[in-house]
Amino acid sequence: MNDQPFxxxxxxxxxxxxxxxDKYALRDQADIAPYITExxxxxxxxxxxxxRPGSVEEVSRIMRLATETGTxxxxxxxxxxxxxxxxxxxxxxxxxxxLSRLNRIxxxxxxxxxxxxxxxxxxxxxxxxxxxxxxLFPLSLAAQGSCQIGGNLSSNAGGTGVLAYGNAxxxxxxxxxxxxxxxxxxxxxxxxxxxxxxxxxxxxVGAEGTLGVITAAVLKLFPKPKGREVAFAGLSSAQAALSxxxxxxxxxxxxxxxxxLIAKRPYDFTLKHAQGVTRPLADDWPWYVLMQISSGRSExxxxxxxxxxxxxxxEQGVVGDAVVASSLAQGDAFWNxxxxxxxxxxxxxxxxxxxxxVPIAAIxxxxxxxxxxxxxxxxxARVVCFGHMGDGNLHYNIxxxxxxxxxxxxxxxxxxxxxVHDVVRSFHGSISAEHGIGQLKRDELIATAPxxxxxxxxxxxxxxxxxxxxxxxxxx
Amino acid sequence: MNDQPFxxxxxxxxxxxxxxxDKYALRDQADIAPYITExxxxxxxxxxxxxRPGSVEEVSRIMRLATETGTxxxxxxxxxxxxxxxxxxxxxxxxxxxLSRLNRIxxxxxxxxxxxxxxxxxxxxxxxxxxxxxxLFPLSLAAQGSCQIGGNLSSNAGGTGVLAYGNAxxxxxxxxxxxxxxxxxxxxxxxxxxxxxxxxxxxxVGAEGTLGVITAAVLKLFPKPKGREVAFAGLSSAQAALSxxxxxxxxxxxxxxxxxLIAKRPYDFTLKHAQGVTRPLADDWPWYVLMQISSGRSExxxxxxxxxxxxxxxEQGVVGDAVVASSLAQGDAFWNxxxxxxxxxxxxxxxxxxxxxVPIAAIxxxxxxxxxxxxxxxxxARVVCFGHMGDGNLHYNIxxxxxxxxxxxxxxxxxxxxxVHDVVRSFHGSISAEHGIGQLKRDELIATAPxxxxxxxxxxxxxxxxxxxxxxxxxx
Lengths: 476, 476
Known about the structure:
4 domains, 36% helix, FAD-bd_oxidored_4_C (chains A, B), Uridine Diphospho-n-acetylenolpyruvylglucosamine Reductase, domain 2, Alpha-Beta Plaits, Uridine Diphospho-n-acetylenolpyruvylglucosamine Reductase, domain 3, homodimer, 17 helices, flavoprotein (chains A, B), 19 strands, FAD (chains A, B), eight-stranded antiparallel sheet, Oxid_FAD_bind_N (chains A, B), alpha+beta, five-stranded antiparallel sheet, globular
């Protein structure tokens, strides 16, 4: 491997640069740095060139030249992905294609309830544009201030809105994609129903840039809820949380817009380490639930519904204690508490994280079996379990033993992953519920997925990207 | 072409028959007849052999032998499809693979809200099983008493439940598929979130049996609504119906579980021809809407909501008149009125039908422009327009001119299709919203879809079925 970053022929770099103009062809390593390192610093790559095209036409010309010259291309939008999909590898052979200048909101159609946006639109900007038009765009996740919708679609992002509204995939009606050859596949449909052949859209969504470059998309909008009620509940077991979820779904259906599970340990970490959070409940409980109800009618209506659910839960002995936020500010504080959990794990030392899903009914059993698996790998390791219970999706994180050694613990990364993921597989779960595969889980996916699934995915990859220039080394 | 049905080598027929046993290998043309003719009699094919396997293992062995011998296979479940996808062509070279004996409900998981069923389960049986378990399976369509879920998934069926719950695709979490080679792809996941590689499931769903044979699926269940309220409204224009839809979505959100548009003509045809229907509204209106609200809480709650919507509609001058069903029986009668529309078109003579979708905002303009296109092809032709307005999906049917000649009118089939579909395309709509492509629309799809889409679909087809034995001549 060449330590110089100039593995690409300078004449070729000039040809690529000419497409976007010198200003938007970054060759200086200082300029390039933010594009080859992921924000947490876990993924570092190398490249001699970052291209920042300003139009779909320029993306198309870049891909045509890439195909002509066999140059690997790594598409990138907000660079907030957690599995290294958007970062080039260390070979220095890849160029980075940043979509961030394609940041126009092309259209909002409030009657059809759609918004048409380019890949580089920041998620929060999109949410705000929908809000200004009197609509809700429900995709919501921690990185929303900087992640961009192209990456959200390419990684089929999840987040806290999935329970009622679905993943990024379900929110997407149509895509515009530049294929490896530079051809533009315009499938920007606003249609809820369209049975004219194979579902190509859903191949590009979630493909992490390995089949083509998503340059724009039509996304669904929803009516804005008129009342939002948030409650915090304390429960004696994960089984009780499952009962409360079933009860809440039965009463609220699609009005149940969040059901987040939090174990005592991450709850306590947050009380200990977070600045300015207030204790949601007076007493301690083994488990907590943050629940949200959205009403299309009114605040009073939402409040009546959430109180009805909690009363029934208390009556049935499912809920130990509960408090409904008495104001929007307190509701926000509950959410802030939930969103602060991940960072409050950091002061407790090194951690090994898992983004898993299992069938909802299996959550209590999973939690029990996984705990045994964890301590068999690292006695004293502390399970930090929280997540989107309503989606069967847990962030099943492990902190090193109290007072233990960070490095020694991180040395157990692979065996810990294997132990937890083996339990996941025993419940027919997923080892990547919402973050994707990228570089992080590629080897494990190939080693443990049914060989037939890997074979079919490879056939798709070969059919769409026969030269293998789209984000090589990612996913498959 | 050979008029004898025995185009297949008798020795090969014996080899296929040995897999399922003689009882389930139909060779007699009298036994075969129901499998090669579609119920309305529009599609007739030929075959020497219908196989009725009783297990996934038998399906697998059939496909292995088919690949070995290059024998084309037409998968079929309930044989209710409307585009000829499930009927063999006239060559006599295909064998029919009936999934109807794979009719087990493998599991109902009320906590995870899933049901796992085999391809041959009749839709209504599935609905009833869900209901008995205290859950709702919302896929609902006219053929539900005889259509089977394998076909519903292969055609990505729509129906009246799409507005709140989605198409068959959105209701499906996982599939089990026998590939052309006989290999079994087991992807029977119960997961709402699973980002481990490409979305293979959605390729098989909607592929009309051209990529593999769906033998089983995991489907979503929902809480049963506790109150269902149905209303019939009279309106002065399609534009008013669009305003009412926007108003209803704003107030009810996901509780709005149906919004069906009906023009005066099909309404009048039904009053004229249907046995025992009652006039829903006292006065005549140019347009009607059947609207349904489902409440997770109670009948009273649903009633209050639907009345609130209609009152607001009346106040804003959007609704001319409206009646809320005063009993479940009257609600059923309103639905029966809606479901009777298609057959009440028959006594009016020959018709040319279209299953189209456009962006919801474009519906009023589409209706206006399409009407002009229709009479330019056949002056006096009568537009019979109704459909799932909330999904942008209209059954835009045309009856021959009053007193006109059936055969002369049907001679205009192709130009009428072209004229209507040209208007659909001008609104970026779909020429097959919910029925699929099959044999009926294959040539038109290939001729009019963006060449890039056709090219990508052909690559998918070649990647999954390189020998071209899966349902040849359908879709692509």
